[in-house]
């Protein structure tokens, strides 16, 4: 009698069919031994998988030691916990400010605001296309007053603020932040924080018209150059590997393509005459942590080692912190599903754990309702609490790189490094990342990969609870309610912007806009002129539009409004 | 409908929403299921979308929303469809949609909402069984 027959015989009360199902479950094995990105794994890893003596010295080394595989600081979280930085952006600048303060009061340690789609596109709140969209996915900052409202009563010299504007309009964001800080009497050299400012990647977030490649490189590097020379504590770019990953690529491609874009910026900064030792210490990245725990940790370790090597060997960095791969993590939004939404809390918990075990500098945990709506106050708080439980209860902060030396994790780190190198070689074979983007090679790649990822779920190769296994009937309501953006909130912003435009001194504005245009024509850094223009109440759309025109693009990415300025 | 005619579907993003990964995947999966699919891409206004449905003589219109605009744009699209007498076009919505919005969208005239995490087996079968032409 087989085991199954024995168990069946033990209980004659149960229906035959139910038992078949139950026993299948009882003897169940994992359906795959591949990582989420498709790498094979062995049953067990042993000392034989590593040449440990040579391996440790050359490839791993202690945390704080080149090539920084185990972390960029010797003592990691003993020195300072990661920054608990939940992304906020909802409704008007005032609404966003209120949520920001709420999270800070609950123990959030880094401020983090995100642009809405209109602001990313470089559209003022009164743009015809902005009408129904202001504040739906973040905050729109059109003029200096909006930035004043956003930052009201917050001591900018004490906080660390992360400004998430990725597109060319990140130049306007920096101009607005600097203008407000200078107006309030702060020394900008002392400001701490970051701006995402990764306009090249932004073309891959669906916003191509706002991010033509040449303009993206030009304006992105204007911010990087200006901050390097004037704001030594400011992280002037956060190369967004996360968004690329969310398009459906693998962990390996995430790093390869992210590095490709990062090196477009590094090459341009070097071309402008800066040395990596000058700007390298404030280069940073935004990384995804998807659901495969060990793969994500190994990916981060491999990225840290590879970036250090690139900076040292390819670009000649000599300062340690110019070789550091500093990164924030955004837990994976696309791994979350609306089916049985509370399960997302668990997914986010695992992903946050992998970020911390990977040695993260700053963390945003998705709210469980990420695939449903903007976070409610409760779900936002829950995401912050997820971080706090990790930081204060679990003990994961005690030891730097606790998985270092694991036969498996070290082997996987090596394997992922090798695969990233292959993916980077593929980019080189099409002429480098700039060409890969210009020729739309990268677009095709992202589309093909996204479809592959979906098919892996469709055919059951990858399992997602509530989607292709353990399904339940649809829930009747969203557990902690639904966040709505009040229509009045956007309308108020639109009205305010119109009023501000009406009240400003046109002659003063024209002087600064003429300077901006002249600087753009002369190929100078546009940020100083944007700062002065912002002080004269120039708007995001006006500043970015004026530079767009100089570069031969329509003033308006949507091509429906014309420049209000006559420069003749 | 006759067996030899392919089901024709128009898929579109609405307004400024730039999250197009899902829409593009749906386009590919519908094509693989044997349907003829016209993808309008991003940055479409209400009138342009409905005009495309008229021009293409489509059986199905699929709207993709991931930025929370579903309650703003859908009624406008439904109204524009009524103006063009498109009551025989199956209107479906996909994306990040709260369950609370599903009855609201259905009341507006949407026939079915497919949230993130839906499988092609679900929406292909639904379309095949429910086209009105």
Oligomer: heterodimer
**Compute the gyration radius of chain A: what is it?**
25 Å
What is the CATH architecture term of chain B? 3-Layer(aba) Sandwich
The biggest sheet of chain B amounts to: 5 strands, parallel
Summarize this structure as a short list of keywords or feature phrases.
heterodimer, A: 568 residues, alpha/beta, 5-stranded parallel beta sheet, 4-stranded parallel beta sheet, 48% helix, 7% strand, B: 133 residues, Rossmann fold, 5 strands, 20% strand
Brief description of this entry?
In chain A, 48% of the residues lie in helices and 7% in strands. With 568 residues, chain A is of the alpha/beta class.
Strand and helix layout:
The complex is a heterodimer of chains A (568) and B (133).
Chain A: H1 3-10, H2 16-26, H3 52-60, E1 83-84, H4 93-105, E2 111-114, H5 117-121, H6 144-151, E3 160-164, H7 170-183, E4 192-195, H8 199-202, H9 213-230, E5 234-235, E6 237-240, H10 241-246, H11 251-271, H12 276-279, E7 283-289, H13 293-314, E8 326-331, H14 343-357, E9 362-364, H15 377-392, H16 407-429, H17 433-438, H18 441-458, H19 487-503, H20 506-521, H21 527-535, H22 540-550
Parallel strand pairs in A: 1-9, 2-3, 3-4, 4-5, 6-7, 7-8, 8-9
Chain B: E1 8-13, H1 21-32, E2 36-39, H2 46-56, E3 60-65, H3 70-83, E4 90-95, H4 101-108, E5 112-115, H5 120-130
Parallel strand pairs in B: 1-2, 1-3, 3-4, 4-5
Helix pairs in contact in B: 2-3, 3-4
């Amino acid at each position: 009698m087989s085991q199954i027959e024995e168990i069946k015989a033990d209980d004659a009360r149960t229906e035959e069919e139910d038992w078949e199902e139950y026993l299948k479950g009882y003897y169940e094995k994992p359906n795959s031994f591949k990582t989420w990105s498709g790498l094979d794994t062995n049953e067990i890893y042993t000392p034989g998988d590593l040449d440990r003596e040579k391996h440790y010295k050359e490839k791993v080394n202690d945390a704080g030691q080149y090539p920084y595989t185990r972390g960029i600081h010797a003592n990691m979280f003993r020195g300072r916990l990661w920054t608990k930085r939940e992304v906020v952006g909802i409704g008007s600048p005032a609404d966003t400010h209120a949520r920001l303060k709420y999270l800070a009061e609950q123990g959030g340690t880094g401020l983090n605001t995100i642009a809405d789609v209109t602001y990313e596109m470089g559209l003022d709140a009164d743009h015809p296309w902005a009408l129904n969209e202001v504040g739906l996915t973040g905050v729109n900052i059109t003029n200096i007053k909006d930035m004043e409202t956003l930052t009201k009563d917050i001591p900018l010299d004490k906080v660390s603020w992360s400004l998430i504007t990725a597109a060319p309009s990140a130049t306007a964001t920096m101009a607005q932040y600097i203008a407000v800080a200078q107006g309030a009497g702060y020394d900008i050299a002392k400001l701490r924080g970051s701006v995402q400012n990764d306009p090249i990647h932004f073309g891959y977030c669906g916003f191509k018209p706002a991010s033509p490649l040449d303009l993206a490189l030009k304006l992105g590097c204007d911010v990087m150059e200006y901050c390097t020379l004037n704001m030594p504590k400011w992280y002037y770019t956060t190369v967004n590997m996360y968004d690329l990953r969310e398009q459906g690529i693998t962990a390996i491609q995430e790093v390869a393509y992210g590095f490709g874009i990062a090196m477009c910026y590094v090459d341009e900064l070097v071309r402008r005459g800066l040395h990596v030792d000058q700007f390298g210490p404030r280069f940073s990245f935004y990384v995804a942590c998807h659901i495969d725990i060990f793969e994500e940790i190994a990916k981060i370790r491999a990225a840290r080692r590879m970036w250090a090597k690139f900076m040292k060997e390819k670009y000649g960095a000599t300062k340690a912190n110019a070789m550091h791969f500093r990164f924030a993590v955004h837990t994976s939004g696309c791994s979350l599903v609306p089916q049985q939404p509370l399960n997302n809390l668990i997914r986010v918990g695992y992903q946050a754990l992998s970020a911390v075990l990977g040695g993260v500098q700053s963390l945003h945990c998705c709210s469980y309702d990420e695939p449903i709506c903007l976070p409610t106050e409760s779900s936002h708080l829950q995401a912050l609490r997820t971080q706090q439980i990790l930081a204060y209860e679990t003990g994961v902060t005690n030891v730097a790189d606790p998985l270092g030396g694991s036969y498996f994790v070290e082997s996987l780190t090596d394997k992922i490094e090798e695969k990233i190198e292959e993916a980077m070689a593929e980019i080189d074979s099409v002429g480098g990342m700039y060409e890969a983007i210009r020729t739309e090679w990268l677009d095709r790649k992202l589309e093909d990969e996204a479809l592959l990822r979906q098919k892996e779920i469709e055919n059951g190769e990858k399992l997602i609870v509530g989607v292709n296994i353990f399904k339940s009937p649809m829930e009747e309501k969203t557990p902690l309610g639904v966040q709505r953006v009040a229509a009045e909130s956007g309308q108020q912003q639109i009205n305010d912007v119109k009023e501000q435009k009406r009240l400003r001194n046109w002659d003063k504005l024209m002087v600064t806009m003429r300077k901006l245009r002249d600087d753009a024509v002369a190929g100078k850094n546009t940020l100083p002129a944007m700062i002065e223009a912002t002080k004269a109440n120039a708007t995001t759309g006006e500043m970015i539009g004026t530079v767009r025109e100089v570069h031969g693009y329509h003033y308006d990415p949507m091509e429906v409004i014309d420049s209000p300025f006559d420069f003749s | 409908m006759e067996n030899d005619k392919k089901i024709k579907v128009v898929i579109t993003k609405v307004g400024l929403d730039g999250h197009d990964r899902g829409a593009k995947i749906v386009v590919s999966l519908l094509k693989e299921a044997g349907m003829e699919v016209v993808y309008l891409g991003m940055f479409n206004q209400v009138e342009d979308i409905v005009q495309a449905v008229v021009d293409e003589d489509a059986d199905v219109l699929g709207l993709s929303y991931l930025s929370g605009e579903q309650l703003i744009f859908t009624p406008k699209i439904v109204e524009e469809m009524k103006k063009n007498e498109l009551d025989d076009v199956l209107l479906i919505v996909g994306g990040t949609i709260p369950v609370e919005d599903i009855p609201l969208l259905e009341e507006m005239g949407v026939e079915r909402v497919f949230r993130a995490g839906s499988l092609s087996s679900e929406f292909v079968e639904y379309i095949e069984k429910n086209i009105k032409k």
